[in-house]
Amino acid sequence: MNASDGSQDVLVTIRVNGGHTRANLKIASVLSITQRVRISISTTFSALIRTFSVSEFEFSKLGQVTNEMDAHELQSLNKLHERGAFPLPRDGDNDMISLQDFGSRTVEKACVKKRFSSTQIFFFALSFLSSWESILVNIRAAMINGGPRGLAWGIFVAISGALAQSASLAEMAAMQPVAGAQHHWTSHLAPLQYKRFITWMQGWITWFAWVSLLAGVANNAANMIQGLAVVNYPDYVPQRWHLTLIIFVILIVEGLINVYTVRFIPWIQLMAGALHVVLFVIFIVVFITMAPRHPPEFVFFNGQSASGWDNGFVSWNLGLLTPVWAFVGFDGAVHMGEEVRSAKAAIPRSIFYTVAINSVLAYTIIVTVLFTMGPLDSALNSGSKLPLIEIVRQATGSIKATTAMVSGLLVISLSVNSACIASSSRLTWAWSRDGGLPVWFSVIDKSRGVPVRAICLPIFLVMILACLNIASSTAFGAFIALSTMGLFVSYLIAIGCLLNARLWNKSFQFGEWNMGKLGILVNIYALIYTVWVIIWLPFPQYRPVIADNMNYSLPIFAATTSFALLLWVFYARKNWGGLNKEVVRLAVEGGVLVIK
Asked: Which CATH number fits domain 112-581: 1.20.120.450, 1.20.1090.10, 1.10.630.10, 1.20.1740.10?
């Protein structure tokens, strides 16, 4: 082949029943910033493979590799195959793909369950975010730092920042709606000379953040159950080990749902999304018609702080973290992208518009609750860990009504747990498929059609970490605090790479969902907001600072990034070839690479 056409020959050696058969493949090397490498398999070669049972698939390069990244891509492809992450087809096995359909739409239809319609993934994202519920459940943190004023005004900052972040991520999802999300986008958009390193760090940071997020949502649901027990049984004394056992039950049950009733998850999330809106209306009506009233001065100008922070600026920014947390995790829908029909259109809309809708609901509920919450001290000093329960009890005057309303929120919280397990497992599957985690976790169960091992891993890790809660709630809380820090750093890296490509890559092409020229300003604002929040995330919530109230999010984040960095230095720098472009292409087009 002539060098002028930018292509190189690759010799494929196939050992068939002890013999050798050879065929030439073409690797089109597009020498651009993204270094796209595509493998096209000829019809003759496909027919040959269909005839025999292939036991080994080897690639050897003919000619000189003209670019360092090409060598890494080829090395990655070989290593993935050797470790079982790139399995070859067997005729007559319905659980394996045939090479004739490798990367085609037939692969998608044969191997990938497109479980979610556009409507179902929209409601999945809507209920997963559950911003107004999250603010009510975590309102205590906002009341002790910044007070009602901080929450009433801080929500605008959180909403504007979340909209900018989600719009930026939606642009990337329109290009690659794949399970790996952030680390795939980083690989696609990062500067060539740093791409492998940045992608490696991004993959680990995002994965640790999602495991931490799963711990956080399970802890929230467990606290709600324990809080309802306190209200209904005054003699009950909550213990930390009780909370740990509740977390165990939640994770095991939700894990079984994700494995054995996966076909119902889109419908469960659809109903959860509808309940999310119905409960909002119920809470608004109850608070407006039954609760006492505070004057506007209390809502918009009361900045009392019970945290010990005398500096109002610091206290206000720490209170801001409550609404910020309410908008964390909107990338959950993207991790399900390979199971969504028309994903390039459905995923971006789901990301952005669910943030927009949740923003309206969250602001409305905040203003309503602040006007009708009753005495602030009573809410903060109630026997339950959740001031929300006392606020609802004061509004309704009935324990039964309070139990019913909070139980509705508990149903939403449990659906969020189910969705979080689904999203974190798909991210685990993708990161394993891409060579970060052991490839053993990337296997798709042939009978269930889901990555069972990838579902079990995050659940197992959170259960181990929940045991720390028995000895100290601070230790478990420290890991939970990693979620916001990790996800915001992952957003920072991905959006930074997007902005860099937008400004300097003249050949950069967007998906159908994009912001055009306005995107530069939105990306910049998203980066500013993300950095600003990251600055405040490590601050302790209380003063004076002691071991029990210390914020350990920064040390935990430093430990996880150090782990990833050490892996890079001693292993990945020489052995990990980066994301294989054929893997990315098949994922975008709907193919499955890891299946048994």
From this structure: 1.20.1740.10
